[in-house]
Structures are given as C-alpha cells and as structure tokens.
Amino acid sequence: MMKRRNLGPIAIAAAVIALGACYGTQEPAAASTGAAPAVAQAAAPAMPTQVEAVTFGMNSAEEGERLYGRECAFCHVGRNTGTIMLQKRLPPGTPAQLHERTNLPAAYVRLVVRNGLVNMPPLSRAELSDADLDLIAQWLAAGRSR
C-alpha cells in the first residue's frame, strides 16, 4: 500500500511565494521598452501605519473625528480596504482617505453609509446610530473648512 503525502504545506508555501511575487516592484513599461517615460507624477504622500489608522482621532477634541476614528478609520485611513477600493475608482489626485477630502457633502456620506456603495456594505442603525452618523458626516463635510 502506498503512503499518501500531505501536500497542504507545499501548496500553501507555493501560494505565498506566488502572492509575494505579485507585490514585488514593477518596472515602468517605458524602462523595459526603452521609450521615454510619460509625464512624471509626484510621489504620493506616505499613508498612515496600521497603528495610526486604528488610533485615528482617539485624542481629538472633535466628537465627529473621534467617532470617524472608531467607526470608519479601520477601512478608510491608511492602506486598507476602503482606501484601496476608492483609489481604483477615483480620478488621479483625489484622496482616497475620506478625511483628506474636501468635497463630501454630509447628505452624501449619510446616504452611502446607510445604503452601501460598491464594496462598502450598508451600516444599520444598530451598528451606527443616526446621531453618531450625523456627527461623522458633519465632520467629513467640514473638511472644506478644516
């Protein structure tokens, strides 16, 4: 009788190596073809670390910012799901971190939070009260004057 091999660890290792290769540095197409590079873009500002994301607004004097940090920052501050997905859809130069935006009306924020949008699931009143959502939406909308 043949002894069966457990290929699970090998398959996992191969997947990790393959995924790691996807995150390596990529050379611009111009460098590989010898063509002149397109207009150089300014380097994007550094994203907050995960620790900065989960502690965002914690010591703020503004309740809307503290609530945004507690309820929204896990996805919308730093390089997290919300910012990654938004960056793919937004025009170049538009910040994907919501707190950096200056064009978010409070009514739009409320609408998206309650109904969801693309990858963002809707949040119920049990998850986030109307009063807390209003404070977050007003704080984000005030980004124009912050």
From TrEMBL:
GO terms for molecular function: electron transfer activity; heme binding; metal ion binding. The keyword Iron applies. The keyword Metal-binding applies. Residues 1-20 form the signal peptide. Transmembrane segments: none annotated. Residues 59-144 form the Cytochrome c domain. It comes from Alteraurantiacibacter buctensis. It comes from the Bacteria. InterPro entries: Cyt_c-like_dom, Cyt_c-like_dom_sf. Keywords: Heme, Iron, Metal-binding, Signal. It holds the Pfam family Cytochrome_CBB3. This is Cytochrome c.
